[in-house]
Structure formats: structure tokens, C-alpha cells
Amino acid sequence: MSSDRIIVHPVHPDPRVRAEVVAQAYRRGFRRFAISERDSLPDGVERVTVTDTEYRSPDGARLLRRDVENAAALADAIREAKSTGGVALRWTSDRVIPLENTIAHHRGSFRLWTTTSRPEEVPGLLGALEHGADAVVVELRTPEEVDRLEALLDARARPPVAWTLGRVVRVTPVGLSDRVLLDTTSLLTESEGVLVGSRAAALFHLRSEALGSAHSRPRRFRVNAGAPHSYVLMADGSTRYLSELEPGEELLAVDRTGTTRGVRLGRLKIERRPTVLLEASVGPARAIVFVQEAETVRLSGVSGALSVTSLSVGTDVLVADLPPGRHLGHAIDETIEER
């Protein structure tokens, strides 16, 4: 889910505040705006003209603005849309099932937009039946609401992770430690996992438990991610400490090819378990991670998955080489040494 199908509609009565909403939305990467002809926009963005009765898109399409409070109103709006080519529906009562029904029976018959003043409704409107509305017009009154909207959307597409090889130089049992399980709301493939480590500059690829073991069933939603002090890479490119994650936050899932996607954290579990310290040389630098000593904890190697219990000095593992400087999780250019 991204901002491509979002149309920001500033609705504050003060034109100065509307301009602030536009400026904040532009900074956040939104490029489609529903706005009156008297309000200005930055160069290179899409203007959807607003009147009391319709939206007019840049290609000349007219989408009638219709409130839908019941099935009869929805049927009337659909009939109009089939003759005019499009409609923008505002749901005043039920919204999920009526939208799903409209998509199921009429998708492709006309241009279907929805309108809301609640950013929290946007993910459902974009994702209904995996297709969602063709566009969602979001009425926003303040710049702060732009930030709320951005936080609810999946992170923008990110380039693939570039792997470098780390050679294991130490595998040392360190006794009992707290370790963190990350249970996601998505099913992960066998080669997908998250990037974790004690040093922000070099994160290990810890795989999901999609393989299971001879004595445990697969848990395709789970990554056994290691000690709570560890960094984990988020979908927006920032790092967080494992211990401070909250359900609903978006992690960066990465497969062995470096392909990425965002997945939501559904649950976090912290338990005390036997732990090993893994250290790998990455050129002149060192990468370190503390993980549970268990067969189901796997890293990625040159040719596939490697269980922590089978690792030995000299084994090559995949490591993501990242900027070492971080301020509140965001990469910055600074002089820093992590030990």
C-alpha cells in the first residue's frame, strides 16, 4: 500500500492552513491533491479540481460526489456512475462490506473513488478485496493529520538490500539471556527474515521459522530475532531496538535475494533462553549478534539457510552493510565507533 492512490484534500477554511497541509503532504511524498482552483500547488503534482458536487481529474473525468447511507443510495450512485463514468462515495454508515460488494460486482465498469475524513479508514479502503478503490480522497485539516496518514500507510518501495559476506570468527555460548520473538501479521517464506544485529553498520539476516524442525512445526509468521538490545531494520529504513517494538509497527522483511517488503508486527514475546554470541568479520569491521541457541534459529549463508547450532568459525553468512551513524534510528552522517 503506498501513496499512489491517495488524493489529499485540504479542507481547513483558512487558506494559510490549507497551504501548510499541501506543503507537509508534498514533503511526505504525496503528489495528488484535490483542491479548488484558487489554491496553489507545487509544480509537478496532480490537481483534482473540487466543486460541491464532483471531482474533476486532470484527464477530464467527472466523478460525482455521493453520500451512501444505505443500499438504496448505493444502487442510485452506481447507476449514475455507469452513465457518467465515475463516482466518489462517502460512506456515512457501513463502509467495508458495501465497498467490497461494489468492487466484486462492478470493478472495471466505472472509476470508483471513495472519500473519508478519517485517516484510519484509508488502509481498509485501499485494500478491500485486495484491490480497493481506484483512489481515496482524504480530507485533512492540519499538517499533523498528514503525519497520521503517512504512518498508516505501508512504507514506500525500497531498493533491494545489497548483501556482503561476513566470515564467522566467533561462536560463543553466553548463558541465559532475554530473547525476542517477532510474530508478524504476514506469512513469511522460507528465505524471508529480518535484519538484526548489535551494530547498526552490519546486520545479520535472521530467517523466519517457516522451515520448522524435526521436533517443531513451522511458524511461518515468526522470526526468533535475538537479544532485546539488538537493532532491527524497519520498513522505513530506520532502526529500532527489539525491546521497544510495538504491535502494528512495520518491519522490513528481506529474502535471500535482497528483495524487500513491509510486514506488520502482530505480537512480541520476550523469554529467557540459552544464548550464543556470533561474531563475523566484514572486511576490516566486525558484526555481532546475540541469538537463541536453537535449531530453528537460522541465518542465511551463501547457499541457503544455516542453523545457529551448526555454525562454526570460517562459515560465510549474509550481512547487510548499512550506515553506522544513527539518531533516534535514522541514518545520519557522523563519526562513530561501535564496539
Which labels suit this protein?
339 residues, alpha+beta, TIM Barrel, Endonuclease - Pi-scei, Chain A, domain 1, 2 domains, 10-stranded antiparallel beta sheet, 8-stranded mixed beta sheet, elongated
Describe the structure concisely.
The chain is an alpha+beta fold and 339 residues long. Helices cover 16% and strands 43% of the residues.
Note poorly predicted spans.
325-330
Question: How many strands in all?
Answer: 22
Approximate strand percentage: 35-45%
Mean pLDDT: 90
What overall geometry do the principal axes of the alpha carbons give? elongated
- Order of helices and strands, N to C? EHEEEEHEHEHEHEEEEEEEEEEEEEE
CATH architecture of the largest domain: Beta Complex
Examine the coordinates and then state which fold CATH places here, giving the name of the CATH topology of the largest domain: Endonuclease - Pi-scei, Chain A, domain 1
- Overall number of domains: 2
Biggest β-sheet description: 10 strands, antiparallel
| Radius of gyration over C-alpha positions, nearest whole angstrom | 24 Å
Question: Percent of residues in helical segments?
Answer: 10-25%
Structural class: alpha+beta
Count of helical regions: 5
User: Termini distance?
Assistant: 38 Å
CATH C-level class of the largest domain: Mainly Beta
- Multimeric state: single chain
